[in-house]
Amino acid sequence: MQTLDQTVVEAPPTVPRRSPIALGGVSRWRAPLSILALLALPFLLPSQALAVNVLIYGLYAVGYNLLYGYTGLLSFGHAAFFGTGAYLTGIGIGAFGLHPLLAMALAVVAASGLALVIGTVSIRSRGIYFAMVTLALAQLVYYVALQASSWTGGENGLRGFTVSAIDLGIVSLDILNPLTKYLFVLAFVGAALALISRILASPFGAVIEAIRENETRARACGFDVERTKLLAFVLSGLFCGLAGALSAIHLSIVPLDSLAYHTSGTAVVMTLVGGAGTFFGPFVGALTVLVLEDVLSLWTPHWQLALGSVFILFVLFLPRGLWGTALGRLTALRGRR
Amino acid sequence: MNPVSNPILEVENLGRRFGAFTALEGVSAAFGEGRITAIIGPNGAGKSTFFNLLSGALKPTSGSLRFSGRDMSRVPQARFAHLGIARSYQITNLFPRLTAHENVRTAIQARTHRYDFWSRRDALTGLGTRADEILDAVGLSGRRDRPAASLAHGEQRALEIGISLAADPKLLLLDEPTAGMGPEETKEMVALLRRLGESRTILLVEHKMKMILGLSERILVLHHGRLIADGTPSEIQADREVRRVYLGQSGGYGHA
Hints:
Order of helices and strands of chain B: EEEHEEHEHHHEHEHEEHH
Number of helices of chain A: 14
Number of strands of chain A: 2
Largest sheet of chain A: 2 strands, antiparallel
Shape of chain B: globular
Pfam families (chain A): BPD_transp_2 (PF02653)
Oligomer: heterodimer
GO molecular function (chain A): branched-chain amino acid transmembrane transporter activity
CATH topology of the largest domain in chain B: Rossmann fold
Distance between the termini of chain B: 26 Å
Helix content of chain A: over 70%
CATH architecture of the largest domain in chain B: 3-Layer(aba) Sandwich
Distance between the termini of chain A: 10 Å
CATH class of the largest domain in chain B: Alpha Beta
Largest interface: A-B, 43 and 47 residues
Membrane topology (chain A): Multi-pass membrane protein
Number of strands of chain B: 10
Structural class of chain B: alpha/beta
Keywords (chain A): Cell membrane, Membrane, Transmembrane, Transmembrane helix
Largest sheet of chain B: 6 strands, mixed
Radius of gyration of chain B: 19 Å
Strand order of the largest sheet of chain B: 6-7-8-3-9-10
Shape of chain A: globular
Radius of gyration of chain A: 21 Å
Number of helices of chain B: 9
Number of domains of chain B: 2
Order of helices and strands of chain A: HHHHHHEEHHHHHHHH
Structural class of chain A: mainly alpha
Protein name (chain A): Inner-membrane translocator
Strand order of the largest sheet of chain A: 1-2
């Protein structure tokens, strides 16, 4: 690794130096590789519905990871964005008869707007206070949805907006066909992954990582830390809102639970189990948690207890998550060679 | 030494009180371009306060501070970096999990690409090349792709200076650049500072007398918040007052 000349002279290096461990190369291909892996998913999992859930919750966790894993902000209120995306998609289709794609687009815009509001209020607090403020504000959104039952269906959740086909002008997608639905959702998830990969590889991506690493230093370097955090918060809310919108299309109902605090917790758990601050980790986390949920709930009605224990084990013994640990091993192997 | 022709930094009657406590009082000095000046003094002499005033972290309660002829008394701290004053910290203050190169590259980026989330980082080759030049200048090209946290203490201190250089400062304020370093590392740091001093004005706070006497052309001595001496190393060594309050304490050349 240290084959570069060690002489210390002022002369600028004329030959551009490439990192021997070409992580830059990996980052260029991470979005296409992830999409390829996700294409294989419906053929590997026992049910298509589970595969679609992995996509949706994977995207939810990826959006969350942008804030938690890359910017270093632990939010406990991301259900607000997921739920808003889901509810507004359902309301747009059911109450206003909008085209599903238009309803989704409006819902994503609204979720981002909500993120701008919640972010503006919460971003100045730090650490546990930040987590608590986001939690409180998300609970506020939950109660609004609970009270406005004529719009949201209250405790029963939002029903009556079944999407069976999506008219794309030239073709009409039959969403009732599980594989078509999977590919429809994957189109959005894939586009989101490409976008997120691009953001992470951008100068802005470097700034959020710098803030995660050392906020004081980032500020001393001349970065506006608050504004950068807010931007990251809104982007994160946008992708979580998109995940919610997709879940409304997938389920044809929006349970009130999609706004509840344990949905916020789900994002945290999936991100940590997969590996915070890794590109594909959240998907691995979503897959692991959803499969465990499936398997454990067959065995015992107390499956949440078992899932909780598994999560504790992860935090204690695999703090970098499944994917993070695997990547670490791989890098170590390549470094040794 | 004082008057300096064409000074880059001038302080006049500079002072700072904290409530009833006067940390610094009536300090006047001018600093020319491309010189290394050391600021010494026993603990509590006001060195840190002086540094905090020069870097904008604190505002003076009396006197004035001019940089390149511009009054800096009311300029917010963030603007100091943009105007050409950078500082390093006594405690190492890096981006620990980023590589050495990324540490410097990100710091350079603060001037031009703060909210750009569409370009590709590695396509902005100008920033990358500049970061490589800086790593070269601080002797860390061999550590380019190592995370900052994995570097040796001396290397981290050098990287700290590299980050300060990212803003291409005219004035570099270094707070104990050799803190916690062994003799070998100190030697390398001195060589680095000497090179940097050729093209920049450097002010440094240090405790290692031997190093200061060899490195700096000029020494300021603070004691109880006042400037008690200002001169070349030999003048300072010969100064009675300085010998009494400072050098005398450890019988001459102090803490090696």
